[in-house]
């Protein structure tokens, strides 16, 4: 009994310490966002609550530095990329998972190879294409985003689609369902956990994307959040408290999305688990 | 059932997203193409930093960062009022120098004519001119009767490649040593202001005054492994004429008690913070630190501060203005470039932004002097008269990287003086 208690205590201490370490940077960003620039460094920098707490950073970031517009842009681009990637990846994954054709494994290998290109190398040619097609500084950057997420999305979807029992489709076929219908009405909903994983992965990748966005969309009114964040410094100084405030502002929408969909994600996963 | 709900919700969210995007992208696509195909038509985009000039004018696009002081807006306004042929669209570049550089290089290598005028760092001109990205300005200057001698010496040199002028100075930035006039004795201060001192004398002063009035260090400068180290090394070695002596002095200062233990990671902001917070007596930095001293919460004020030139010369930084070789509006681009770098434009730009003018005649302007109190300081003027450019090369980035690594290795004690000297000299001779 006492052994158990000691073990419990140690576990708790470990968990608390671990949590403190992981949560600390986020906590520090939060409190830094309320500090004036002068208290970020120097004697006052270790105070938990600033000597002169201020909301000025939030005002500057939201009103003057255009962070709200950037969040809007990021949201639109991430959502569209997610939608596009999920639709295209579902269709290609269905074909790969259900149909037999020559060079299937070669195709899978090629898809993976595309994902392995260093972004720094593709960004030049992509810029040239966008420039020639007159697509710079527009939401078309979503197309470029999808090149990053689509390959891994296809792979994840194929793995999930493979797990859906063939019997279900056969039953649907007997009831007169078309191939197209089978994908969207049978496989897609059953593989929901995989779909959600893919969607979330694409969304986060697009939300955090920096290089393509900063190269293709230079115009201020179409910039995304990560690029906008990088504008919060001047040639020699970095405005840490503004960056902290902007980070807090930027995290809120993503946090909301995760909280909103958390139930669905968990439900989807457990539903899938007992299906087999 | 739950699955179905989830799937429906997800698709609904996505559909909304798509609809929003569809509208947005159409709109943007249209305005972009409109702006490019019919430069004369007035753009409808509301709240960008675009000119409010009336239609019928040819649009010139400027790519430059925003220093947040309204100086660029004021110049654009002045230019648009001075003629009725052109208007200016300003695309704000990031203040991250490397990011701006890669954005520009990507656009230039695609042959983009998006920007007619680009603001470039002093060390980019060589690379960009060699690659044919920017337009030589000599014939335009000849027509407008401008001579390179009209502009700041170090800056115009930085914009020169193969004896042709590729960029004109917007404003020069140069290294100076800020010091606490309330700590340093009048005798030493006079010596510092005159610039007639050696690094050894300077080091003994830094050691002498360290600890007074709550200071923790004598001297801070930029010794991290980055571009700033090349600037500092340039100053210590008197424009790389005395590599061995300069490196030796640098190492001595790094190893002394006068500098903080972590001096080898100091960049501009660390050095500025140490001075503004009253932690050091001397600090080498760019003139922008003067502005920081005006803040209410600065521990050290402008009244407590004086400026000394650097013995080996002050390394030039700052920004130049160049013309895209692929520009489709070269006449207009030159008109604005000329205005921006001329007496009139420089007066507006520098008095609004507190910069040092790159056009020499503007130095005497009362408004410019008033906006930049440093111009009234003896040590500052001395520094301005003795500016030195960084080594010019068409592969500057490579050269700079190699120098940074070599010098930083030496300062941290990983290699000895002779090896480093011959390495640095060898690389400079190659470039």
Secondary-structure element order of chain A, N to C: HHHHHHHHHHHH
Structural category of chain B: alpha/beta
Low-confidence stretches of chain A: 272-276
The amount of helix of chain B comes to 40-55%
Number of helices of chain B: 18
Name the pair of protein chains with the most residues at their interface, and give those residue counts. A-B, 54 and 59 residues
Distance between the termini of chain A: 40 Å
- Mean pLDDT figure of chain B: 85
Distance between the termini of chain B: 71 Å
The pLDDT mean of chain A sits at 86
Oligomer: heterodimer
Radius of gyration of chain B from CA coordinates:
25 Å
Give the overall shape of chain B.
Answer: globular
What is this structure, in a nutshell?
The complex is a heterodimer of chains A (276) and B (431). Chain A is 75% helix and 0% strand.
List the helices and strands and how they pair.
The complex is a heterodimer of chains A (276) and B (431).
Chain A: H1 2-32, H2 56-64, H3 67-98, H4 104-116, H5 119-132, H6 141-163, H7 166-174, H8 179-190, H9 192-208, H10 211-216, H11 225-230, H12 240-275
Chain B: H1 2-37, E1 58-65, H2 71-82, E2 86-93, H3 97-109, E3 117-121, H4 125-130, H5 138-143, H6 153-158, E4 160-161, E5 164-165, E6 167-174, E7 176-180, H7 186-194, H8 199-209, E8 217-220, H9 227-236, H10 243-255, H11 268-276, E9 280-285, H12 288-292, E10 305-308, E11 314-323, H13 330-341, H14 343-353, H15 366-371, H16 378-385, E12 387-388, H17 396-411, H18 417-430
Parallel strand pairs in B: 1-2, 1-3, 8-9, 11-12
Antiparallel strand pairs in B: 3-11, 4-5, 6-11, 7-9, 7-10
Helix pairs in contact in B: 2-14, 9-17, 10-18, 13-14, 17-18
